[in-house]
Amino acid sequence: xxxxxxxxxxxxxxxxxxxxxxxxxxxxxxxxxxxxxxxxxxxxxxxxxxxxxxxxxxxxxxxxxxxxxxxxxxxxxxxxxxxxxxxxxxxxxxxxxxxxxxxxxxxxxxxxxxxxxxxxxxxxx
Length: 125
Known about the structure:
Blueprint: E1 6-10, H1 14-26, E2 30-34, H2 37-47, E3 51-55, H3 63-72, E4 81-85, H4 90-98, E5 103-106, H5 111-121
Parallel strand pairs: 1-2, 1-3, 3-4, 4-5
Helix pairs in contact: 2-3
């Protein structure tokens, strides 16, 4: 596949990060990974992935702060962004979508749900 999409996954829970990477790679995506928002920002600005999946609550820089920084940078402002979070309140979801995220996936989620959301966000469905 010549136009394989690259996805950056920003997640501070190591096992969840590994599982997400495994699922995405199993479905034909290239992946980049970061264990917090600061590392995610560096990787995003360096590699310009096709999509970013990010946890909401992380040390050093939250998912909200990461998204805000990405939106301020012309080189990353148009990268689609999906929040992955255990915070399922409507208020949290509205805040995330209002900040510019394309989607909001609540944990726990299934592999099929994750892949479908990724494909939909990337326009592959």
